[in-house]
Amino acid sequence: MSCSRYMLVRELFLYLQQIIVCVILTLRVYALYGRSRRLLSYVVIIGLALMGGASAGSFGNNSNTAIYIQGSDCHNSFTVKIAMRYGLAWIAVFVFELLIFVLTVFRTCKTRGSPRMISSSRNIIDIMFQDGAMYFAAMTLINLPNILTYYCGSVSAASYDWLGFFLTTDKDITRGNLATFTGCMSVTLVSRLVLHLHKSTDDEILSTAIQNDDSSPNVFTTRLDVEFSSHSFQADSE
Question: In degrees rounded to 5, what are phi and psi of residue 79?
């Protein structure tokens, strides 16, 4: 596989990673707001708008090139203009995560202390707030340096071509070199959110074996017992 094709596949996987992460974060807020379809529609519209901007920046007509450094690996090299467009894609991710965090804080502050909230629901909301705050703080510390690499890299960079001659070019291989790490950390942290929420529920996920009528092997069904007070959530979503 050529370097250019390899880097295209890499960018595509990073893009799909962030879509999956954003979908999971959206589902958390959707559940936190009592399955409010109006809120879900607003979040989806904003997410699609940001995704369109990220797509244009990542896969639009650009002049980035993939280069191979002898004794090293394939690297993307960006001009200043193209690096700024790729940086906008990660800014869009940051803006969406900021939106999710603000919605989580707003719901937590509004429902904390409500007399209609049962204890199990309050505990779950507190867990979702704490995990959400942890995720946003960690991703801010990781994503901001990643964004800065697209805007603060040096204009010229030293690289080696396949013949080993020393070259100076107006492209920079250091731009965006934290993108892979940022994508992996976002997947790892959002996985922790899901697993911690599962662990913190009263009964966790209960799997029950069911025998089929045609003597086939046991089929397992999954049930999640979480008690939410739907009255307060439903009143707010109407």
Answer: -75, 170
Q: What are phi and psi of 44, to 5 degrees?
A: -65, -40
Phi and psi at residue 205, to the nearest 5°? -95, 120
Predicted TM-score of the model (pTM): 0.73
pLDDT by residue for the chain (238 residues), tens only, comes to 577 777 778 888 999 999 999 999 999 999 999 899 999 999 999 999 999 988 887 776 555 555 544 445 676 667 777 788 888 999 999 999 999 999 999 998 888 766 555 555 667 888 889 999 999 999 999 999 999 988 886 544 444 343 333 333 445 556 778 898 999 999 999 999 999 888 877 555 444 444 445 544 444 344 444 444 444 445 455 5
What are the CA-CA distances from residue 184 to residues 14, 87, 100, 135 (Å)? 9, 17, 20, 13
